[in-house]
Amino acid sequence: PQTHRHQFIIQATPVKRLCKTHNAITVNGQFPGPTLEVNNGDTLIVTVINKAKYNVTIHWHGIRQLRTGWADGPEFVTQCPIRPGGSYTYRFTVQGQEGTLWWHAHSSWLRATVYGALIIRPRRGDSFPFPKPNREAILLMGEWWDANPIDVVRQATRTGAAPNVSDAYTFNGQPGDFYKCSSKDTVVVNIDSGETNLLRVVNSALNQALFFTVANHKLTVVGADASYTKPFTTSVLMLGPGQTTDVLISGNQVPNRYYIAARAYQSAQNAPFGNTTTTAILSYKSAPCAAKKGCASIKPIMPSLPAYNDTATVTAFSKKFRSPRPVPVPTKIDESLFFTIGLGLNNCPRNFKSSQCQGPNGTRFTASMNNVSFVLPSNISILQAFQQRIPGVVTPDFPANPPVKFDYTGNVSQSLFQPVPGTKGYRLKYGSRVQVVLQDTSIVTPENHPIHLHGYDFYIIAEGFGNFNPKTDTKKFNLVDPPLRNTVAVPTNGWAVIRFVADNPGAWIMHCHLDVHITWGLAMVFLVDNGVGQLQSIEAPPPDLPIC
Length: 548
Ligand code: C2O
Prior knowledge:
The protein is mostly beta strands. The chain has helices at residues 149-159, 311-319, 382-387, 515-520, and strands spanning 3-17, 20-27, 36-39, 43-50, 58-61, 87-93, 99-105, 115-121, 135-144, 168-171, 188-191, 196-203, 209-214, 219-224, 227-234, 236-239, 244-250, 257-265, 278-284, 335-347, 363-369, 372-374, 420-422, 425-429, 433-440, 449-453, 458-465, 484-485, 487-490, 494-501, 506-512, 523-529. It folds into three domains: 1-126, Immunoglobulin-like, CATH 2.60.40; 130-323, Immunoglobulin-like (Sandwich); 335-529, Cupredoxins -  blue copper proteins (Immunoglobulin-like, Sandwich).
C-alpha cells in the first residue's frame, strides 16, 4: 500500500459562469477541486490550509474511517471548523472499498464549490471484476448559483423561507450547451468504436436529485458508493445527492457526438426542459465532426429524459441493485429503530418579526427525524464531548421510535409540523446489529430524501411506498444479496430499511444530503463506543485537531 500526501488550500477564486464572474471558494484555485486517486488499502494524508474568510472542514464522503473518526470532517460533529488562517491534516486509510467516492466541504453550504472526486482503484495486483475499460471519465453533477451560496443559505435562515434555487446544473462545474455563455466550455468525454468507457457519475448537487442519461447508449451499472454491484443495464440513472454510480458504456453506435444529459427528479423549479438540463458530450474520435470547431451547426444527438415527477422510473432503477454475490447481512437484530424523516413548518416564535417568518402562512421551514430537529453544538464537537465524557453537549436520548405514530401518507394535523430542536444522539453498543426503517412523513410535501450515514456502509434490504408495515413488509426483505451503500434515496411517500453492524467507534452523523434539509435539522448522530479504557473505545484526538 502507498501513502498519498496532498495539500488543499481553501481560497476565494474568481470563477466565470453564466456570463458573470464572482469569487467562489475553491481548493487550490480549482473548481471542481482536485481528483484524488488511490488504490484500495492506501493511506491519504491531506493537509487543509484555510485561506478563505469562512470556517471550513472537509468530509471524505463514504470513506469508512475505521478507527479514524477524527478525520471524518463534519463541523461540530467530529471536529471544530478550521478557522480562517488555520489548518488541519486528515489521515485515513481506505479499507475494503473500491469504486468512486468524493470529498466535499462539510460546513454551511461551502460544498457548492468545494468538492471533488475520490477514485479508489482495486488493491494493487487486483483488477476490476469486469473487463478492463479502455478509458475512464469522471462526471460530477453539481449546482451553480449566480450568487454566493453562503449568502443564499443565510438569507433562507434569516427569513425562514425556502432558499433560492440554483441557476444551473453542471457537469464538472460546467452548465453545458443549453445555458448562456457556457457552450464553449461544455465537457467532452471521448470514446471510439469498439471501446468501453468507465463513467464515474457523482451527484454532488446541493439540493437536487438528478436523472442521468446518454443519447442512444445503454449504461451497464457496475458499482455504486464504492461497492461493486451485480452488473445490470439501464438507459437512465437517478442519483440522490451524495450517491455515486459507476457505469460502463460501449462505443457501439454510429460514430457521432451524443449528449450526456442530467436534469432534476422532483425539481422545485419545474422549469421547461432545456434551461434546466445540463449536458456534456460523448464524442467518438472517428465522428465526422469530432472537434467542436466548425461544427456549430451540427448538434450532438439529444436523449430524452424522464419527466421530473417520474417516480416509476426511479423505482424500476433502484430495484435492480444487487450485490454481486451473497453478502453477510445481519439476520438477527440488536437494535430495531424506526426514524421518520420529513419537513415541518414552525409557527412564528413570539419574539420574531414577520420578516423572519416568510415560510408558508407566516411560518418558518424546519425538518426533523423522529420529530427532533437537529442542532449542532457551537463550542465543541460532539465526538470530543463524547470521547471526553463532557456532559450537556449531546444527550443520548434520541428516540428509537417517533413520539407519535400517524398516517405518513395523508393530511395530518398541523401540530405534527412542529419538531422540537435538540442535539440528541442514539447510543449503539460496539458490535451491535442495527436495523433502521426510514419513513418519509410526507409532511409539507412528499419527497425523495437521500439519507447518508457517516462511518458506515449499510445494506438496503427493502424499499416501498406508503406506511411501512412490520407484518407484511418484512417478507420483502432481501437478506441474501442487497446492495451496500452509504446513501439511500428513500422513496418519496415511502420508506427504506437499512442494516449495518456498529463496528466503528465514534460519533457518526446521519442526515439528509439535501443541504437545505440539513440546514433545517434533518439529521441525528449515532454514538458508538464501549466506554473509556475498554478495547473498542475512541482514541485521543490528533494534536492539531481544530478547537472552537
Ligand atoms: Cu456527503 Cu455528511 O456528507
